[in-house]
UniProtKB/TrEMBL annotation:
It comes from Bacillus paralicheniformis. It comes from the Bacteria. This is Sporulation protein. It holds the Pfam family SpoVIF. InterPro entries: SpoVIF (IPR025942).
Amino acid sequence: MDNQFFKNIEKKTGVSMNEVMQLANSLQNANFKDENTVRSVIKRVAKLANKRVPKEMEDKIVESIVSGKEKMDFNTIAKMMNSKK
């Protein structure tokens, strides 16, 4: 991936490339079928993005990822960071 990709993420999310890389590295071997792991990732992403994730939204995100309806990748993370709800 090129630097522009990460600069776009920084611009859209307000999160530094370094923080994005640290998050990405921590996700490499994570078990996204485990609810606790997914909740932990959601909380970490919300904290990085300085966003509040209401319990109802967290539950929907967890259910979607654990069930396999949504995969955990940079686009999913960016959507979570940009969510206004």
